[in-house]
Amino acid sequence: MTDAVAAGPYGWRYNAPGYYYHQDKQLDRATVENNVRAALDGVTKGEPWKSPRGVTHIPLLNKDKLVVGDLWLDADLKAVEVGTYWTGARVTKAELVADGKLVGTIWLP
Question: Which of 35, 45, 49, 83 has its CA 20 to 30 A from that of 28?
């Protein structure tokens, strides 16, 4: 039996190959929301581009000009809310929601 199979089925909160999810590392919602707010205070929107499938991507850049998130619809970063979030081996990924629509994601260390 491989380690991946021994760790549990693939999917939500299980550690699949490549460190997709962590079952033993969960953060409470208030912590994630505070971290997202702090991260969004220091980001700027990068140059929009379209994927070959026609999806718009607007990179979110931190003060070091590193991409820390992605918007698919242009939205006011001060008005977005935190949607669903999940924790992986290296980052916590949170959905950004505006007017009830998923508009992007941000990655928190």
Answer: 45
